[in-house]
Design brief:
Blueprint (H helix, E strand, L loop, with lengths): L4 H16 L4 H13 L3 E2 H8 L3 H13 L4 E5 L2 E7 L4 H29 L8 H26 L2 H22 L1
Antiparallel strand pairs: 1-3, 2-3
Helix pairs in contact: 1-2, 2-4, 3-4, 5-6
Pfam family, one: MarR_2
Keywords: DNA-binding, Transcription, Transcription regulation
Protein name: HTH-type transcriptional regulator
Amino acid sequence: MELTPVSERFILHWGEMGTRWGVNRTVAQIHALLYLLGRPVTADNIAETLGVARSNVSNSLKELQAWKLARVVHIMGDRRDHFETSTDIWELFRLIVEGRRQRELDPTLAMLRDSLASPELSEEDAEAQTRIRNTLAFLETLTTWSDEMLRMKPDTLMKTLGLGAKLSRTVRRLKQ
């Protein structure tokens, strides 16, 4: 497959952004390629198009599947596995937020709750205890809010985000 200059820039940039988000560059580039193509592709085609080792593609596809960002598709008459991703940006956003929450926020929430329930908490000074409680309260509020946002239909979420932006601008103007 030949990439257009715009597709190539998109894929390269997505790979760069992936590294900033803590994701392997190749994983992010493969996801970008699948997203832009919008059709099932074999691992060999991915490796050839991106110029990366087939083993790297296999490992990257496994990671994308673990994140539920890629899935195997079978094509009639072709015994090879093909891979695709959703082309619905909201579905992808939801999957990424849910995955990050499970991997990052949920363990942190559990640790904070365990820390507050621990008899050893009394050994911490009052300010440290307050900071732990405040961190837990903040993360619980954040996850509750994100859960509510993720339950919304995309058009409702877009309207809500638009209203939130208008409200924020209004509040800033009132403070001036």
